[in-house]
Write a structure and sequence with these properties.
This protein is an alpha/beta fold. It has 17 helices and eight strands. The structure holds hypoxanthine and zinc ion.
């Protein structure tokens, strides 16, 4: 069914219960918080104002962004910093009617600059507990390996995570994609899976369909992050569709990093029409100009998504989550109730 007006579409998107499955917590660091933490921790940052920071957020590819993303996280020093960062994200998505989030963090981005693994994860986990207690938002934590570093480094990071294994749901793979294929991390992913962790990986954002095949066949992922370039390979599309592999698609990120030239060219609608289990996510909202609902709204507007598309995207966000079967079923019923009330 189509919407009667853009306002009706906006209201429908604003209220539908949803989950976020692709969010780098360090990418939710707003410039205002960057300045506040720099001051709190006595750190110099190479920007004179919030406006100057935002102006620097003009990227022509993934690496452009990553350079500034790693620089930005330098203000995160204490457990309280990680708590404040994570809590600000939960407070923000609460207004978007997100009721569940599966959050990435990049421990190597912190340990490499002398911040203890425990400092980062303790702050994030404390905020996750408070978000559930005070906002009713459930969450899971996914530890990503930086693919521009070695597999030995990733293995050492997995080792470091040992005391926290009960609190980490899965491992992921992010950072510079080109030249760092999933095959480079086959051993560490096998080890993580043997420990009972879920596996996800960024693939097909800038990298070729071969990288997506490798993520499926060698890393044995449970969910695919981005996956845009899968559409170049019809056999791969078939594989993703037949397995109902969830794709965590990030439209405003894709626009910001020039993965697409224009949102009207974005493949999201095509993915849904091909029967792929696509979801909408924000990736690094403070860097890419929008949180969850901004991504839904911009994409719906550019691709003329109808109510069934929005419902499918919201439902896919739960189907693709690492929540238990019963909680997923409950969340899908919550969406059905919302749709019935909205129509009624
Ligand atoms: N791609 C790869 N690595 C990342 C991203 C991304 O979009 N965001 C943070 N690390
Ligand atoms: Zn990402």
């Amino acid at each position: 069914m189509s919407f009667s007006s853009p306002q009706q579409r906006q209201a429908f998107i604003a209220g539908i219960p949803k989950a976020e499955l692709h969010l780098h917590i360090e990418g939710s660091l707003e410039p205002e918080m960057m300045f506040a933490l720099a001051q709190r921790n006595g750190i110099d940052i190479p920007f004179a104002s919030v406006e100057e920071v935002r102006k620097a957020y003009a990227f022509s590819n993934l690496q452009d962004f990553l350079d500034i993303y790693y620089q930005g996280m330098n203000v995160l020093r204490t457990e309280q910093d990680f708590y404040d960062l994570t809590m600000a994200y939960f407070n923000r998505i609460h207004t978007d009617k997100a009721i569940h989030a599966e959050i990435f963090f990049d421990p190597q981005g912190h340990t490499e600059r002398g911040i203890a693994f425990s400092t980062a994860i303790d702050g994030i986990l404390r905020a996750m507990g408070d978000a559930e207690a005070h906002l009713g938002i459930t969450s899971k934590l996914i530890m990503c390996f930086l693919r521009h570093l070695s597999e030995a480094d990733a293995l050492a990071t997995l080792e470091e995570a040992t005391p926290y294994l009960g609190k980490i749901s899965g491992v992921g793979l992010d950072s510079s994609e080109l030249g760092h294929p999933p095959s480079k991390f086959a051993k560490v992913f096998a080890k993580a899976k043997a420990l009972g962790l879920k596996a996800v990986a960024h693939a097909g954002e800038e990298g070729p369909p071969d990288y997506v095949w490798e993520a499926l066949d060698l890393l044995k992922i449970d969910r695919m992050d981005h996956g845009n370039r899968s559409l170049e390979d019809p056999r791969l599309v078939e594989r993703l569709r037949d397995n109902q592999m969830t794709l965590t698609v990030c439209p405003l990120s894709n626009l910001s990093l020039c993965v697409v030239d224009n949102l009207t060219d974005h493949p999201l609608k095509k993915m849904l029409d091909l029967g792929l289990r696509a979801t909408i996510n924000s990736d690094d909202p403070s860097y890419f100009g929008g949180y969850l609902n901004d991504n839904y709204e911009a994409t719906a507007s550019a691709l003329n998504l109808d109510k069934d598309d929005i419902v499918a995207l919201a439902k896919n966000s739960f189907r693709g989550s690492f929540l238990g079967e019963e909680t997923i079923a409950q969340s899908l019923r919550r969406i059905d109730d919302y749709v019935a009330r909205f129509d009624g």
